[in-house]
Amino acid sequence: MKVGIGQDSHRFDFENKVKKLILGGVVFEGHAPLDGNSDADVVLHSITNAISGVTCVNILGKISDDLCLKQGITDSSVYLKEALKYLEGSKIVHVSISMECLTPKITPKIPAMRKSVARLLDIPENCVGITATTGEGLTQFGQGKGIQVFSCVTVV
Q1: For FRET with 112, which of 26, 41, 85, 130 sits at 20 to 30 Å CA-CA?
Q2: 91-110 per-position pLDDT tens digit
Q3: What domains can be seen in the chain, in order of their start residue?
């Protein structure tokens, strides 16, 4: 058994009126998107980094830059799928996701996010835990300037 911890954070891009806010593969309509070259899905980036913690193959960096900047692939689920390739027969059995942000309100979308992440990782929905906090406004994330996510994957 191995455990990987991943983190990612992005600022909101309040000027962009075209791009959508996507978290865990779920679109949050009517909210400013996150700034980034890709779709900036901070949840999937965090999970990707957690998988990299298990496989020791960093996807976010050169590999994702090649996919995004050279091939035009901005869908973060592609980066996650790339990370999964390096598990070499091991399987993710659980993921725990902790989000910090003031907005948007995460709780109403948790069921859809759990379903999306479970599908991407090929695990049951009851093996995807998602929590969210404002952190009492102590950080820039809790003050509404962006979103920070920590993820922990359990692999057997």
Answers
A1: 85
A2: 999 999 999 999 999 999 99
A3: 2-155 (3.30.1330.50)
